[in-house]
From TrEMBL:
InterPro entries to which the protein is assigned, alphabetical: HAD-like_sf, HAD_sf
Protein name per UniProt: Uncharacterized protein
Domain of life: Bacteria
Length: 295
């Protein structure tokens, strides 16, 4: 019988893993997550969706699903979390990051400072404010997201400003900005520039720093260091086993305690062989019950 003490972190994909195509949690998933977190387990959400699209899709269901403040890892593994101190990773694409940095500074010069030597580029439009869990409780706003305007308008046309204007009023309450850049592994969404263009980070001192994250697997490694939980005590739950899926890098990642694959069909022998011996396969409606077996 697994215990939360043995495995204190379960990192989980969102779409197709915790929720269906309509944003509804699968059977007993909300109950299972709250059961696990009530026993001091952590469930960071690791999704390839940017937070704007994710929250627009799930609306209040995400906060209902999680029930407490948790880390969200997004855009193929980049982390957003309110951590004290600095953690530096080499940027994947400094040119793309520069434009986001400079727009942030130009828009909010009173609240953000800049490290020397970052040049001005073009390509970003709007700002959105987010939280570690969702944008329902605006008092807990803790990040500023740089949204590429064209993508945001495609995601939810005519709603962008109505969704975000009220949150701009909370800029004075924003803690130091924690925003991460992420690209995808080769083969993952290569034609969607938005997924490659983000982001910037501010340290607790208020000066901007760059975090580069290349995949969900890299995101899991960074998360492990930030929360001081070794990878071999972490479990990952996802549903994307194809090589072009962003879960794939985690399923191929060595060292994880367990890799839980959500699937409505049985995996092939080859799938088991490539992902290792510590694979568990569950139907979407079995995940909640599986979480409830932790002691």
């Amino acid at each position: 019988m697994q215990t939360v003490e043995e495995y204190p972190v379960i990192a989980a994909d969102l779409d197709g893993t915790l929720i269906d195509e309509h944003g509804n949690p699968f059977h007993d998933v909300s109950k299972g997550i709250r059961y696990y977190t009530d026993r001091n387990g952590q469930v960071p959400i690791v999704t390839g969706k940017d937070p704007e699209t994710m929250f627009a899709k799930t609306k209040r269901r995400l906060s209902e699903l999680l029930g407490r403040e948790l880390t969200i890892a997004h855009c193929g593994g980049s982390l957003i979390c309110g951590t004290d101190g600095e953690f530096r990773v080499t940027p994947l694409n400094e040119d793309r990051l520069d434009s986001a940095v400079n727009l942030l500074i130009a828009t909010y010069p009173r609240y953000v400072t800049i490290v020397p030597g970052i040049a001005d580029l073009e390509g970003f439009g709007s700002f959105a404010l987010g939280q570690t869990i969702c944008w329902i409780d605006q008092e807990r706003v803790s990040e500023i997201g740089v949204v590429r305007r064209a993508f945001a308008e495609r995601a939810y046309p005519n709603k962008l400003m109505s969704n975000f204007t009220g949150m701009i009023d909370f800029i004075r309450k924003v803690k130091p900005v924690h925003i991460y850049f992420s690209g995808f592994d080769e083969g993952n969404m290569p034609d969607d520039d938005f997924m490659k263009d983000l982001e910037v980070l501010s340290t607790p001192s208020g000066s901007l720093e760059i975090y580069g994250v290349g995949s969900k697997a890299k995101g899991i490694e960074i998360l492990s260091q930030m929360i001081d939980v070794p990878v071999d005590k972490m479990i990952f739950i996802g549903n994307g086993i194809g090589k072009k899926e962003n879960d794939y890098s985690v399923f191929m990642m060595p060292g994880l305690a367990y890799k839980v694959i959500i699937s409505e069909v049985q995996l092939s022998k080859e799938d088991y062989e490539q992902f290792g011996d510590n694979v568990i396969v569950l139907h979407p409606n079995e995940l909640g019950e599986w979480l409830l077996q932790f002691k």
